[in-house]
Amino acid sequence: MPTDLAIQTKALTRTFGSFVAVHQVDLKVERGSFYGFLGPNGAGKSTTIKMLTGLLARTSGQISVLGCDPRDPSQALEMKKRIGVVPEDLALFENLTAREHLTFIGRMHSMEKKMLSGRIDELLPLFDLEKDEAKLTIEYSHGMKKKLSLAAALLPDPDLLFLDEPFEGVDAVASQTIRKILTSFAARGSTIFITSHVLEIVERICDQVGIIVGGKLVEQTSLAELGSGGSLEQRFIEVVGTNPDQAGNLSWLGEGSK
Amino acid sequence: MNWGHLKSILWMRWRIRFNQIRRASKLSNVLFALIAIVASVVSIGGFAFALGTGIDELPGATPFAVLLTWTGLSCLFLFGWTMGLITDLQRSDSMSMHNLLHLPVSLSWVFLFNYISSFVSISIVLFVPAMLGLCLAMTIVMGPMMLISFPILLAFLVMVTALTYQLRSWLARLMEDKRKGRSVVAMITFGFVLLLQMPNLMNMSRSNSRRADTSALDEQIDALVRPSASDTEASAIYKDESSRLRSERLERRESTRNAAEAKNKSIITLGTMIIPAGWMAYGIQGAFGGRALPGFLCFLGMASIGVFSLRRAFAKTMSAVLGTEIAKKQRSSPKEKSQDSASNPNRILLVERSLPWVDDVVSAIGFANLRSILRAPEAKILLVSPIILLAFAAVMLSNRAPTNGPSMFAPVFALGATMMGLITLTGLIQNQFGFDRAGFRALILSPVPRHDILRGKNLGIAPFALTFGFLALLGLQFFSPQDFTHFLGSLPQLGSAFLIMCLVGNISSIVFPMRLKEHGMKAANANFKTSFWQFLSVFLVPLALSPLLIPFGIEQLVKGANWADYVPVYLSLHILGLACVLLIYWKATKAQGDLMQDREQKLLDELTRS
How far apart are CA B20 and CA B17, in angstroms? Predict the structure, then answer.
């Protein structure tokens, strides 16, 4: 499926037994765009990212990531040279320290030694991991693991970043740092594919969004187009189908003062 | 705590157990049911057997026999109990007090409930009924005096459970620090294995001293020359001398045995008197011998230890739960020191190193794997077995009678030693991705040919395999030497054996991967097929390595030829063999890399599923 798009899928489907996690999804992510992939819990966001990055096989459909098909072994390696990934459950070696893990990842990408150590020296303080350098990653908090995972994804300077909930469990300062890094990363023409529950952040940094509900892609548009019809949160709630007015209607809350 | 709380907690424990059973495979449930049936049968049978045998045998039994019986029962119980303790440490579903802190429940009751729940263990179910049966038999046979055995047994149970409960609270707090916790499990397992093997080692080394006791007589008997039958006088002298030496040897053996028995008797008696774990046996023996005081004192001692331990465990748990220990912990934090050493900019990390003539990516994976193995406690536990096995082999070899010159089959023994060194590492070699867990995703996401991943993984294990193999060969050479050229030949043989093992291990790791749990060696998702293969693979190793006997066979075939005396056939063939195996390894790992690529999804599913 030759394409100029950074990511393109056609009728992408994944089933687990009789459960359809992702159903006939047609994604189109332009090169250089900052794509926010949204959806409620269990909608199929992580399953989609896993299929796009080669961590999960598709049941049917087509995938093209930077012109490569992750199912083809030779193309998959070519693709992996050019992407950075922060998967849902992360991908860290628990018996290595942050520096060791980053060194290992850099060497897997055949990075030159001097450049590698220089980038690690920049990344560790940036993500506030320098002071915990002696710790093994198994001793890290979830937020620290997330930051290290993001540092590992950024290290080889990929053309395309896949980030599954990068802001989840991360403190406000780190969250701002990550936002700034991602914005400058996208500004130089690289592509970012991100899933997040924090709609405000997505609204602030993304230029394209896709909304998946129950495994089906129900919305795919630019944020500018979406903005004309109201806020992202409004649109999200509309397509997800929850009625927020009912949220406060607990039987015992409407019985007057306590 | 009110009745409602108690019911809720009981319900919660039941749900935890129920969900575990529901999530487990059918085979596990069948096994669980089988174990439960066997445990019930053993429990009831143990009671009946102890009662019946006790009534039958106790009237004629000596106090020492009673002591020995109760010591044996105590040891069996403690063995089972310790096993349970190690399993418990690796379990994370126990009723944590932290989960109840915010609820209106009395924590002291929860503590007591937790403690009483700890009584529901397999060792108590298996051994306590037999102990009760024996107590009952003693009371029936010896009269009301032996009623004291019941409170002694109870005190023993309270002491052991409370003491381990205290230890468990302490270990549980240590385990909160993941790094320390993993080391704790490793250390406990190591200590436990060593403790269990100690009697074996002692027994083996003692048999050596027994034989040495009569070796001079053995030599004299061997030195006697049997005269011809016609020389009747010499024959008579020979007969007399021979029978004198033989009876002297018999006497010496008997006296050695008697001395050893007397020594054992006094050691066991003293041991049970000094070590609290033996007080139950010592107290009951005292009562059996008509003395109530030792029994009473033992009861008092064990009950005091039990009560003290329980109080201490309660105080410690409460202070840990309520956070009064935090300030103390923070004061003694060693973090700063370790940070200084880690941030040394000139230090070259192990994962940064490269090997000459080895692809950089393979080096990187190899060193990262080595670094992980050196740190992973589960891997350290696996590495303990070769050390123990080597110690055993050394003791056994040192016990062998001396031989004149190297045996013709010395090269076969050398292959055996190599095999022994490598077989003990099967846990690492046959399941190379098992320790990676989430890290395996990083390998899959890396833009590296899969055969390089396999080669790197194999490289990471090489230092251990080659060191253990070499030590085994060196030990063999020391205790049972072979020709020097044969010894040299066994070195390339070790290299070939390792590469063959790796090829088998790669297949096993790709086709039957098994994710290991964080805190131990337990498989997180073992099914019957995987477990069976891992078991079977240990026996397949000798089969896979059998071609390495070819050089020995060829050497035996050409032995008669003139040129064979001038050419080190064995050594040359093994060097050639290593070159061939290396070539095969190179080609085969490419194919294995393709297989790994094909099975990537399955591997991810098995190894990274949480």
Answer: 5
